[in-house]
Amino acid sequence: MRAWLWSGLDARIRSFAWWASASESEGFLLLYHQSVAQLGFWLSPGLRGRGWGKVALRRALTQLPNDANTVVLAEIAKENTVANRTARAGGLRLIADQAHRTIFTPERSILRGET
């Protein structure tokens, strides 16, 4: 994961990466690209199905930089039902339900650190 992050992030775009480690090789990752105010989140396959994704997502959202972005978006493929459930349970609010994707934004109370 570390190698992928270093090779995949564009150095010209300020990004925020939040990693919660569950073990040497498993954990939760949230990427926040400040230039476009988009975020993505992933949970290691070995940790799925235990309810940890929503807890880690909520915690990661409270630690995003306070950079005054007006809108922060998370796009999730429509068929990714697990990620859609995690987004809702983790503090993201649905703002668009399209044919092939759903679009969420964080609840403002979470971004302010109110859980």
UniProtKB/TrEMBL annotation:
InterPro entries: Acyl_CoA_acyltransferase (IPR016181), GNAT_dom (IPR000182). Residues 34-88 form the N-acetyltransferase domain. It comes from the Bacteria. It holds the Pfam family Acetyltransf_1. This is N-acetyltransferase domain-containing protein. It comes from Rhodovulum viride.
